[in-house]
Amino acid sequence: MPGIENTTPGADFLKSLGFPTLDVHESFTHFDFTTPGRRVLVIGPMGSGKTEFAARIWRDASVARKKSEKVRCMTSTGSLDRRRIFFIRSEIDGGRFTEYPDDALAYRSGYIRCGDNIARIKDSFGFEEVLRDNPDVGTYIIDEASFFDERLAYVARNYSLEKGCMFVFPTLILNFRREFFNSTARLMLDIATDVIPLTAYCEHPDCMASAFYTYRYYQIGDKECPALYFDPLIVVGGDRIKNSGLEPNYAARCEKHHFLPGKEYTFFTLKPLGEAATRGDVEPLKRELKALHEKPESSLLAENLKQRYGALPDAEIYMNAMTPGLIAEKAISYLFCEQNLLGESLVVHLVSDLGLDTAYLEKVLAENRHPVSFSQPYLL
């Protein structure tokens, strides 16, 4: 209730020394390696310091390993010791931090070298191999766990319960659409014992609010072009700012400055067109894809954006979403990879008939675990 003095122990202590009543906040504490079986989610938008938090855990472990035999007994379960840490990254994340050594636990402001205790894996089966090969490791840091298949969540849970091992997951839970990243992200929340949320300043130049969301945008000259809602879910790239219509950039943003055009279009227009195509009525979808590819300003998407955002103060930014191009390719990717509405043969036929960018599509579809080769034609 208003007017009641802060009665936390820290505030009482400061008051006893003659200080005025203050709000006392909990400081960062050294990491707990004594509790077995923890599954710790470290969540926040891109740029909030999730991997840097993991590096602090690594540094704490190096201090804790210098402690006595008595401490080793406190941090061990059987042969594994939770002060021994292994760092894991996804193979598809190889475009980031290429300027650092191969054994680096790298983050935006530095890195720590892990020696032999680091691996890149493809999926949960590779994860199990790492667990089998390192029976004395007691803590695993799995960076961007949402990039992996959902089976990984239960492999970690079962291993932690059986062995007393600890897992730390610095990962995105929400994607650039402000939705659960995928089913793996949902399961991570399901199996977690601890959640540590991190935030950042909103990276909009006129804002100092806390950012909870990851914003995806394309930078083309001096234009900020927000990604459309149906932009491919996973687009792999480096951490450097790109001036490109092909590779997006990311920023931490607050709700006010997180622009996400095209969501209504996706569910009111694009998805129904995809559903009609699955029933054999392909022509309406084909007409819209043709417009998106050849004359975007004549598309149903352009009409929707004008109606939805035309009167808003930020209308220009929303309309910039049409600038990067490859909109038809992104629409096909969304309907194929995420909605499972288009069969592979139909995708190949549409791409060939409309003359779409096959190199871009092959890269994006592979990154989103739906690889397609456009070198061989399919018969409908």
From TrEMBL:
<dbReference type="Pfam" id="PF00265">
    <property type="entry name" value="TK"/>
</dbReference>
<dbReference type="InterPro" id="IPR027417">
    <property type="entry name" value="P-loop_NTPase"/>
</dbReference>
<dbReference type="GO" id="GO:0004797">
    <property type="term" value="F:thymidine kinase activity"/>
</dbReference>
<dbReference type="InterPro" id="IPR001267">
    <property type="entry name" value="Thymidine_kinase"/>
</dbReference>
<keyword id="KW-0418">Kinase</keyword>
<comment type="similarity">
    <text>Belongs to the thymidine kinase family.</text>
</comment>
<protein>
    <recommendedName>
        <fullName>thymidine kinase</fullName>
        <ecNumber>2.7.1.21</ecNumber>
    </recommendedName>
</protein>
<keyword id="KW-0067">ATP-binding</keyword>
<dbReference type="GO" id="GO:0071897">
    <property type="term" value="P:DNA biosynthetic process"/>
</dbReference>
<keyword id="KW-0808">Transferase</keyword>
<keyword id="KW-0237">DNA synthesis</keyword>
<dbReference type="GO" id="GO:0005524">
    <property type="term" value="F:ATP binding"/>
</dbReference>
<keyword id="KW-0547">Nucleotide-binding</keyword>
